[in-house]
Amino acid sequence: MTANKIVTAWVEEMRALTKPDQVVWIDGSEAQLEALRKEAMETGELHQLNQDLLPGCYYHRTAENDVARVEDRTFICTSKKEDAGPTNNWMAPAEMYAKLRPLFDGAMKGRTMYVLPYSMGPVGSPFAKYGIELTDSIYVVMNMNIMTRIGASVIEAMGESGDFVKGLHSKAQIDPENRYIVHFPEDNTIWSVNSGYGGNVLLGKKCFALRIASFLGRKEGWMAEHMLILGVENPQGEVKYVAAAFPSACGKTNLAMLIPPEIYKSKGYKVWTVGDDIAWLRVAEDGTLRAINPENGFFGVAPGTNAKTNFNALESTKKNTIFTNVVLNKENNTVWWEGLDKNPPENAEDWKGRPWNGKTSTEKGAHPNSRFTAPAVNCPCISKEFENPEGVPISAIIFGGRRAKTAPLVYQSRDWESGVFVGSIMASETTAAAAGAVGVVRRDPMAMLPFCGYNMGDYFAHWLEMGKKIPHQPKIFNVNWFRTDDEGHFIWPGFGDNMRVLMWILDRCEGKADAVETPIGYVPKAEDINIEGLDIDRETVEGLLEVDKKIWSEEAEGITEFYSKFDRLPKELAHQLEMLKERLK
Ligand code: OXD
Ligand code: MN
């Protein structure tokens, strides 16, 4: 399929190592994909769902021991340990290759190796980067077909270039003891073995678009971030874009696909989704910071998704979607998961394939990390700019976490440098929903802790450097939808009503809204958060915006401890922390 000698030589080398029975190049044609679906149905890898109710939809189960990303088995292999930094697992590249080669040796015997060219970003976009994933899994090919742009057009765009990410994946024996997700950023290479779970094997996503891309972004002067991108359209038809980073379980996909409350909808405001998970950002010629979503679909968590929490996500899953580890409804050959509706099927199979009755069973039917892989084009609120090769200009960057008391509903950083500080101290508290102690603070800078492909201290420095290169810097904010009252109930309604906070943020970006200075930054005046139609009074909003000096002094101690593990912490951030402590006195 290609005359690119670098590509063919590498594919041949990997073929000789993994020893598949045959090698098949994926051209991305519907005929080829359809033949592969048929083959996967014969082996049971895919199950075809009810084609009248869910056209083009399929069902898949992973192995029971293989249901999530494995951070403790994820490695960044740079020549020098310091370059991977204190927050990543590291091994010297030569040592790691020597460890993995025997695991890949003959791993594809009796199987087919699929050669899958793909693009992160629209093919031909100045943002786009290309990769080739070699895999022995049709499930991977089918998911990558939804999550990325694949096939012949990518090979054509690559031409003779050797500038592509070399991904090698084998399910091997799905052996958890020998599962490795390994990045060699200096070689533009990813090796993933003994897993079939999306986050570990759809190499375009976390492995390439975040870990390898963050490394490339530092080298080349751009940024790869764990951020959603959304646009807010005003009644005059002008759209302003924000990019937002949140740790898991903070409602990122919900915010990305937000439905405005009636008071805004009736005036003609609209929200458009550009991305729900990853943003690549570059300084444009006009001096703005522009972003694309390098992905082409959504790999979303199913449980909890319903017509109320995220209508647009649910709509996105109605056709051409792959469901993984959810409940299989045997009554009508469709799917179900906890939180979809109050009507679980009685005649069903759970995610492990066991008979399951949703009315009587005490066990959950869907795995808590069960997923849908849905094409972005299915989303009713997908932005017209989704395919724009130049991306969209970002007015605001938003960081957020789950904090019961500490962070106010929203605050704005003083400037870019203090904004980088705000991102670097991002944290979420554990909730009663998860096992373990409640209220334990987990720091997750810029929500990139598991995804930064190099030393996180250098990553902070890169953020500071980027700020100097952006003539029209986005303003930086922090939000917290999760403040609780003394009984532990959420005070802010969240979901669509988060639009009210977005409106203050955008007004601030345009110099239209006032603010009050606090030790941590600027908070809104309570009257500037629109609460029309909400069951909340001004006093409550004042409480939500309060910055408690005592709590923040304890927070500053926590940050000091967290910062102490960074060998390459930029002096600017240490200085920001000192200034915060001064202001809290
Ligand atoms: C994801 C994650 O799957 O962040 O997007 O874990
Ligand atoms: Mn994510």
Derived structural class: alpha+beta
Over all CA atoms, what is the radius of gyration? Answer: 24 Å
Terminal CA distance reads 67 Å
Taking all residues together, what is the mean pLDDT? 97
* Helix proportion: 25-40%
Strand content: 15-25%
* Tally of contiguous helical segments: 17
Question: pLDDT below 50 for ≥5 consecutive residues: which ranges?
Answer: none
Strands, total number: 30
Bound molecules: oxalic acid, manganese (II) ion
Shape: globular
Account of the 3D structure:
- With 585 residues, this protein is an alpha+beta fold.
- 29% of the residues lie in helices and 22% in strands.
- The chain has 17 helices and 30 strands.
- Strands 11, 12, 13, 14, 15, 16, 24, 25 and 28 form a nine-stranded mixed sheet that branches. Strands 1, 4, 5, 6, 7, 8, 9 and 10 form an eight-stranded mixed sheet that branches. A five-stranded mixed sheet has the order 2-3-18-23-17, covered by helices on one side.
- A hairpin with a 5-residue loop joins strand 15 and strand 16.
- Helix 12 runs antiparallel to helix 13, helix 12 crosses helix 17 and helix 16 packs antiparallel against helix 17.
- The radius of gyration is 24 Å and the shape is globular.
- The mean pLDDT is 97.
- It binds oxalic acid and manganese (II) ion.
- The site of manganese (II) ion has 2 residues, from loops.
- The site of oxalic acid has 4 residues, from loops.
